[in-house]
Amino acid sequence: MSFKIGVGQMNSRDDKAANLTMAEKLIDKLAERGARLIMLPEYFLFLGDMPDIARNAEPADGPSLDRIREKAVSHKVYIHCGSFPEKNGGKTYNTSVVFNPDGFIVAVYRKIHLFDVELPNGNVYRESDTFTPGSRLVTFQIDGITFGMSICYDLRFPELYRQLNKQGAQVLLVPAAFTLETGRDHWELLLRTRAVDNLCWVVAAGQWGPHPPHKTCYGRSLVVNPWGLVVAKATDGISHLTAEIDVDMIAELKATFPVVDHHREDLFRG
Questions:
Q1: 69 contact partners, CB below 8 Å, separation of at least 6
Q2: pLDDT reported for residue 123
Q3: Extents of the domains making up the chain
Q4: How many Cα atoms sit within 13 Å of 153 on the Cβ side?
Q5: What CATH architecture applies to the domain 2-262?
Q6: Burial class (CB in 10 A: 0-12, 13-18, 19+), 169
Q7: Rounded distance, CA 224 to CA 230, Å?
Q8: What is the mean pLDDT of residues 186-193?
Q9: What is the Rg, in whole angstroms, of the alpha carbon atoms belonging to the chain?
Q10: Quick check: 148 and 247 in contact, CB under 8 A?
């Protein structure tokens, strides 16, 4: 079975209206190219310093995501919003939402692992100052294919993807805003490793370029097959790509190279 997925690479900044317009244009282009599922990057709606991100949080049924929902309906496609700052029950989450072609929400994932680090260049990131961590693993299905959800920093925690794989995930989705400093050494390495670990497809949508306050994202959105080979990669800049996801390849690999079945559950509970 083959499935076309589309990935939008953005340069979101601290201008919600401009970011929404950029996202809509990418969605239009990817729909024209025949994508069944379109994915945007992490922080597609707003990317700035943490206090500003918090001030721009909205509920999932707010006006910004309503515009994305309308695109799903008009193009008759599934749209994965990447992530946005979600206001819910007095808390703020870094949240992914997936709309179906009828405009209904079919999946909601709240980022589990929050990015709290100080990089060697002095840049400090503390998502936990703004966001509450999620606590639930999420999968959803399109046309009988199971997709596993994650966001950015989650990529460094292989046990999350192992559990998604055990829940049937055949395609692992990773919207991200990887920093330039970590991305140039770790981004592709980690994505290819997660594919090989689980014999799954991995699809990653990245932010690219400078954003307030004086930080830069790596970009290089890509699609990796279950053997760990990159089959599509975005160029630098605001960009988009499509790829054919062949899930039959997973069964063929597992039949001849059943590494996932050899996991010692009696020793490792992850």
A1: 79, 99, 103
A2: 80
A3: 2-262
A4: 17
A5: 4-Layer Sandwich (3.60)
A6: buried
A7: 4
A8: 98
A9: 17
A10: no
To the query of whether residue 152 is one of the catalytic residues in this protein, the response is yes
**Catalytic residue list contains 42:** yes
* Mean pLDDT, residues 208-215 taken together: 94
Q: Choosing from 58, 86, 111, 217, which is the catalytic residue?
A: 111
Helix (H), strand (E) at residue 172: strand 171-176
* Residue keyed to tokens 């819910």: 88
Does the annotation count 111 as an active-site position? yes
In tens, the pLDDT along 10-42 reads: 999 999 999 999 999 999 999 999 999 999 999
Residue 125 vs residue 128, higher pLDDT: 128
Structure tokens at 142: 């399109």
CB atoms within 10 A of CB 228: 15
DSSP string, 17-58: HHHHHHHHHHHHHHHHTT-SEEEPPTT-S--S-HHHHHHT-B
Q: Which of 81, 152, 200, 217 is catalytic?
A: 152
Catalytically annotated residue among 42, 58, 86, 127: 42
d(CA 268, CA 244): 34
